[in-house]
Specification:
Layout lengths: L3 E5 L3 H12 L5 E5 L12 H9 L5 E4 L6 H11 L8 E2 L4 E2 L4 E2 L4 E2 L4 E2 L4 E2 L4 E2 L4 E2 L4 E2 L4 E2 L4 E2 L4 E2 L4 E2 L4 E2 L4 E2 L4 E2 L4 E2 L8 E3 L4 E2 L2
Parallel strand pairs: 1-2, 1-3, 4-7, 5-8, 6-9, 7-10, 8-11, 9-12, 10-13, 11-14, 12-15, 13-16, 14-17, 15-18, 16-19, 17-20, 19-21
Antiparallel strand pairs: 21-22
Length: 205
């Protein structure tokens, strides 16, 4: 039986997700929906997506809205979660401990490591080669860029962006809506949202 994935968001992120979905054999076919772009490969907008799901034109949905629009991604997930079925993609080259919980709508890119008792909440994306150590929770609608490393017993709350090469030491909490710049090293709790960069991390905005 053919399994069809719908992706909401037809930009570069959506195309990356489609590539993994097909080439890693998670789905047999992909279709795109987008609220802001129209072309021959886009089947329609969010309302069309709901109608097409009810008409059984696809099986599952993943949101492919990029890290500059995490609030919009969360809003779409909240709006759609009781209207369509969400899928998830865990690339075959990633290692996920059996005790880990990966939420609906998540995408785990190649060569990630997700350790014991990790929780990745709904609608979150881990890019290439991320490492999440034991007993850590990553919130909903987060985006982790390539090569992010999060040590054990950490909590990253919702709608956070962790830039490429971010390192977070153990027992750290990062509050909702925080942006961490590339190469940043987080050694203390972040209790106020903002943009943090450097080693150690400092708020710049």
């Amino acid at each position: 039986m053919n399994k069809v994935l719908a992706i909401l968001g037809a930009g570069e992120l959506g195309k990356q997700i489609a590539n993994f979905a097909l080439k890693d054999n998670h789905y047999n076919k992909v279709c795109f929906y987008d609220d802001f772009n129209v072309n021959e490969e886009i089947k329609g907008n969010t309302n069309d997506l709901i109608s097409d799901f009810n008409n059984k034109l696809f099986d599952e949905l993943i949101i492919g809205i990029g890290y500059n629009h995490l609030k919009a991604s969360e809003e779409k997930y909240t709006f759609l979660k009781n209207k369509v079925k969400f899928g998830k993609i865990i690339h075959s080259t990633s290692w996920v401990d059996q005790s880990a919980i990966i939420g609906d709508g998540c995408v785990i890119y190649p060569k990630c490591v997700i350790d014991k008792n990790v929780i990745i909440k709904n609608n979150t994306i881990l890019n290439l080669s991320c490492t999440i150590a034991h007993d850590t929770t990553i919130g909903s609608s987060c985006f982790l860029a390539p090569s992010v490393s999060v040590a054990g017993f950490c909590e990253v709350e919702n709608q956070c962006f962790l830039g490429i090469g971010t390192t977070i030491k153990d027992n750290i909490k990062i509050v909702n809506h925080t942006t961490i710049g590339a190469g940043t090293v987080v050694v203390k709790n972040i209790i106020e949202k903002g943009i943090y960069v450097g080693n150690p991390a400092k708020c710049i905005k």
